[in-house]
Amino acid sequence: MAGGNSTFVTEFFLIAFTDHPEWGLPLFLVFLSFYLVTLLGNAGMILLIHRDRRLHTPMYFFLSHLSFVDICYSSVIVPQMLVVLLEHGAVISQVRCAVQFFLFTFCASIDCYLLAIMAYDRYVAVCQPLLYVTIMTEKERVGLVTGAYVAGFTSAFIRTVTAFTLTFCGSNEINFIFCDLPPLLKITCGESYTQEVVIVVFALFVMPACIVVIVVSYLFIIVAIMQIRSAGGRAKTFSTCASHLMAVALFFGTLIFMYLRDNSGQSSEGDRVVSVLYTVITPMLNPLIYSLRNKEVKEAAVKALKRSKLACRL
């Protein structure tokens, strides 16, 4: 445990949001409700895509995997955070901390890759519509998703092993909602330059690489949309990409703010608020964004509700 600067840390004490004990129960109830909405929304999206034949397209295939990963992503973080809020802090062993960090990094990496794949899918649909069916075959989309999972696992494994070869000493308190890299680096001791370089390199490989794919895809999409003569045609084409753009902006915006900035002089409270956005709010909003902004999903949801009401009457 943490007795002084020379004492090595073997377990951590998560104390996020415990500065104000009176906030514990209200925040617990709020985040619990968010978590339940996340589970119901994403599970509902997966079920809707599976049951409605009109949604058996590449875009919704990728969206179903995004919903599945968002369920896992949120489940890695929120239950632990609820314990911290309810008990005003929670002890977590270094092994459990490493497992949580790995699972979080794994899910976050897959989310990045899936959003990039979905941008590429929209590029093919808008810029090469006649070849869309031949390019986005079942074999192709399964290969893309499998590649996302494999790349996510590889990146998460290397980053986790590298991070937890560091030595932690001094205070074992982590003023954060889960075992993430920025708060862990604050309690390292000894030489950590090599490990930090490896961690940063892999972080830069995942996030900026995906952002480049998304930006390039949408540059081609914008050019294609501008060549459409009718305003109605341009609006209709852009509307097919609007929900994806909103999800991309929400997810990558918070990640960039958190990881690709100078952390010197930044408050822990600000970091905690941002971490809530990308671990709690984003997975909850994704199914809402895709359902409210998408005609096919809304029609499928209405059809499913009518079917369930008819079944209840019978």
Radius of gyration: 22 Å
User: From N to C, what is the helix and strand string?
Assistant: EHHEHHHEEHEHHHH
Number of strands: 5
In spatial order, strands of the major sheet run 2-1-4
Q: How much helix is in the residues? A: over 70%
Q: Explain this structure to me?
A:
With 314 residues, this protein is mainly alpha-helical. 75% of the residues lie in helices and 4% in strands. The protein is built from 10 helices and 5 strands; from the N terminus they run βααβαααββαβαααα. A 3-stranded mixed beta sheet has the order 2-1-4. The longest helix is centred in the middle third of the chain and has 34 residues, at 94-127. It is globular, with a radius of gyration of 22 Å.
Keywords, please?
about 325 residues; mainly alpha; three-stranded mixed sheet; 10 helices; globular; disordered N terminus
Write the layout of secondary structure elements.
Blueprint: E1 11-14, H1 24-51, H2 58-87, E2 90-93, H3 94-127, H4 132-135, H5 138-163, E3 167-168, E4 173-174, H6 181-185, E5 188-189, H7 193-226, H8 231-259, H9 268-292, H10 295-313
Parallel strand pairs: 1-4
Antiparallel strand pairs: 1-2, 3-5
What's a concise summary of this model?
The protein has helices at about 25-50, 60-85, 95-125, 130-135, 140-165, 180-185, 195-225, 230-260, 270-290, 295-314; strands spanning about 10-15, 90-95, 165-170, 175, 190.
